[in-house]
Design goal:
The complex is a heterodimer of chains A (about 280) and B (about 325).
Chain A lengths: L9 E12 L2 E8 L2 H6 L7 E6 L3 E6 L10 E6 L3 H7 L6 E8 L12 E7 L3 H13 L7 E7 L8 H9 L4 E6 L11 E2 L2 H7 L7 E6 L2 H13 L7 E4 L15 E2 L2 E2 L6 E3 H4 L7
Parallel strand pairs in A: 7-8, 7-11, 8-9, 9-10, 11-12
Antiparallel strand pairs in A: 1-2, 1-6, 2-5, 3-4, 3-6, 12-15, 13-14
Helix pairs in contact in A: 5-6
Chain B lengths: L2 E6 H13 L3 E8 L2 E7 L24 E10 L2 E6 L7 E6 L1 H15 L5 H8 L1 E6 L25 E6 L2 E6 L2 H9 L5 E2 L5 H4 L9 H7 L8 H5 L8 H5 L6 E7 L3 E8 L20 H20 L9 H5 L6 H9 L4
Parallel strand pairs in B: 2-6, 6-7, 7-8
Antiparallel strand pairs in B: 1-9, 1-10, 2-3, 4-5, 4-12, 8-9, 11-12
Amino acid sequence: MSDKNIYLPYLMRIAEITEESPAVKTFRLEFIDEVAAQSFDFKTGQFGLYSAFGEGESTFCIASSPTRKGYIECTFREVGRVTAALADKEVGDIVGFRGPYGNVFPLEDWKGKNLVFIAGGIALPPLRSVIWNCLDLRDWFKDITVVYGARSVKDLVYKRELKEWSERSDIKLVTTVDPGGETPDWQGKVGFIPPVVEQLGLAAENTVAIVCGPPIMIKLTLPVLERLGFPPEAIFTTLENRMKCGLGKCGRCNTGSSYVCKDGPVYTLAELNELPAEY
Amino acid sequence: MANTYNLSHESLKGLFGSLRRDGRRILAPVDAAGRVELGEVEAPSQVAADYLQTILSAKEVAFPKVERLLSYTIAPGRVDLKDAEPRALPTVLFGVRPCEAKAFGALDAVFNWDYRDKFFNARMEQLAVIGLSCTKADEACFCTSVGGGPADATGSDILLTPIEGGYLAEVCTEKGAAIRALAPDLFRPGNGVDKAAIAAKVQQAFDQPALTSQLPGMFENEVWADQALRCIGCGACAFVCPTCVCFDIQEEADPKKGERLRCWDSCGFHQFTLHASGHNPREVQGARWRQRVYHKFSYYPERYDMLGCVGCGKCTRACPVDMNLKEHLIEAAGVKA
């Protein structure tokens, strides 16, 4: 009878809301309970279930870096019932959070390597956590490159941070928008992510690639990386299967014998190649 | 090791009385106008005689169809959360089939392999199972193909096997011993009864270990799509299944208060894996049927070292379009790589 209720969320206060792009918002969330605020810890790559009380829970990554203490951030697009209810919230409102769940990006293993992050659209948030984590541990790594693309200029998220990264000398940022998505003063590239990656002439040696995006982007980017010489063990991605529990029980993220919520969400391409393509 | 006794029909009546005096409710198969399902009983005379299988499974005793996980009230700038406590009554599940008794182990594997589920555990702590060996079977049964048997004691705290004048009673666990201790005089020394001679004969239908080892290599085989052609995705198989554990979490709320509920779900439903983006990892019914088979016969063995199927045949009997799990597994086992 001593088991705790594993479905009970933390209560979080919305400390800050950032409008990222049409229908995409970032919440900064602070723990209401002081003890939880002090004891809470997570590692980059992990995710949580966020509650809009009255509507239910949705799964998003933790988009902030574990090196930034005292809060967590999530970025979401308004697409369904729960995200619509979240989007209606204001600063000071209360939401729920369960987590952190899942495995992590193995930063220790990446020490001394070059890092290439490739993200499409609303898939930058999970990589933003890793990118900031790596920037805060900058001397662990060699070159850091970020390739980020979206359908159009207005669909790019984290515009302030993109500007900050473009001005820093210790990170190379390449942004691109799909043809037709550019504006007259757009300074970045125009084109889909896979060819943009191919043109960068990345050296695969001593480099890990971290890729996240819509299924079609991932499907077309992986062959490019393989052509550039990246072995499947050096390509990482993070899956976001539908989930209800996040605890390895409800069954819906089950892919092969793997639970994305427990054995993932971070997988290498080598690991994904062993699973049925049900993600 | 099981301690074996004889329990006469008259003694069973006494045992029911002892269990009730001990504050336990007794759930047993009850015949309601020809349909046999679990219900609360006070005496053995109320238990359905000569039944083969209930339509629904016994899993609801430990894993209810709908269960409150938490509740809350909402006020401006404020949410108050309330933990939920499962209403776990001391319960004896009487007369369930060995396959159903065994199925609780498959549920336990999921609910406790990592995080522990207090709702399931609270109910299991309060539950004792008195199983009843099968003396007959039908064409949907295949317990002997999945490591069970019509007189298998796995999962039963006490297993009864019908004999002349009463039952052979095997006390298998501490919980079973505690039940016997309520009325030790009712349990008479058992004689050497050949259980196998009394139990139903269920022919082994397929070679399960061979099937399990060949499944990883036949994921793309057309047999799954073929078998699922007539599947209408109704989910009845999952709802009657004693081991199907997949669930949904839903909100019931108004602007001021709400509760979060866990409800049974099925991998056979299109929405089970549907992403918010519209992408669906298991787009077609064939992929969902394959998931059902693989989860039970490939992923469960790999992950929990047991099967996610006890061969009860409930899914086959409940299926409105006559999908027959045993026949489909025989067919799959016969596919040459």
